[in-house]
């Protein structure tokens, strides 16, 4: 059945009817499905690259690094461990339940809805599907309407690999998503902005659907006096300007120790120039810089820059070409703390830099924002690293690098409160789509000793 919006409810029902069959599938059957998905991703790789370029000038290498490779890694990790993850897990039994035993049985939650954003559309829609399939759930994917060429390839891949009653794609805008959100899904996996996350959670509450919310926000970077500056600068430029800053865990703003003030901004900008070109024409022609996804987001990022120009000491870069949805890699030096660029998630190629004298000043700035999705530390001084970790919170942290926690297959990925609820990837993704069912088996029937009537003997046993 073609998956258009007129048959949303029918597809949901088909998937619901198919749940017993999905649940009954062995680890081997589920792995076979995942391997079919792997082959399709490799077969469609060229189409993904072409669509990424068409939608917003995504560089081919960035499609490979941030869309294809993480998917292949998720597939490999899940296929390798799924049998073990699915196995019921024995747990030790407390003395108070002597004579009984306990285990956790992993059962699929059931029907699931995966709502994906536009910045890494392939990984962020098919990644959760890997976890859903592994757990034995069905899935409806709602890709972003902002990247139609990539959504079309996602649909082709899904229709090539899955039956509609296993995994289906439903395209659409807010109206379609709203209709989907009215359905009583067993689990909703949403990746996107905190504002829409709240809408999703409110809709999920009506059906008490469980949710995983992978959200965004401002991810700070602390650069201590002890940081190795060259190494830090090289890593920051790649992490920030990959996908032209449109990465949920991109460094959003830098807090740099005052001892680096004299050289930091110029050295960082010099690195930008050596990677992407010294003049705006070269930068705009660089095949390594994606475009801003659409005019709406271009206007949003440009307005952050316009506001920052009146509230910062210096701006390096800052070239904007609306027709091409292009903004050049830009450093905003010492913006006021109340500038919009220091208050809103940037999600574009602007990088504010503020200098601090004491580490607690940096931590104060961070604690005034909602809890970040990622917090990065560049330092060689272990006491500073420990102090930062012990006096802050974040969904994930990298020390002396950025972004890599996202692709470490054995780490949970997700935010805290405003930056997200629940974790994903690998085993954590499998658990997100599983109900961990606690099962107790009574062997010796000793609990009967405590049953009514509560004779003096019962009271004696209960004497604590
Ligand atoms: P978004 O929240 O605008 O959209 C995400 C999805 O929600 C899209 O499919 C969209 O169609 C749908 N949507 C939009 N408005 C809706 C509404 N009113 N009701 C129901 N559905 C609606 O986010 P975006 O612009 O696509 O992506 C950027 C945001 O996503 C950033 O905040 C970024 O940090 C975050 N993000 C987070 C992660 C992560 O792993 N935590 C990854 C990528 C992006």
UniProtKB/TrEMBL annotation:
Family matches, as Pfam families: Aldedh
Domain Aldehyde dehydrogenase: 5-436
Biological process according to GO: aldehyde metabolic process
Gene3D superfamilies xref list: Aldehyde Dehydrogenase, Chain A, domain 1 (3.40.605.10), Aldehyde Dehydrogenase, Chain A, domain 2 (3.40.309.10)
A GO CC term assigned to this protein in UniProt: cytoplasm
Transmembrane parts of this sequence: none
Keywords linked to the UniProt accession: NAD, Oxidoreductase
Key word GTP-binding present: no
Lineage: superkingdom: Bacteria
Listed GO MF terms: aldehyde dehydrogenase (NAD+) activity
Active-site residues (renumbered): 214, 248
Family: Belongs to the aldehyde dehydrogenase family.
Name under which the protein is recorded: Aldehyde dehydrogenase
The species this protein was found in: Umboniibacter marinipuniceus
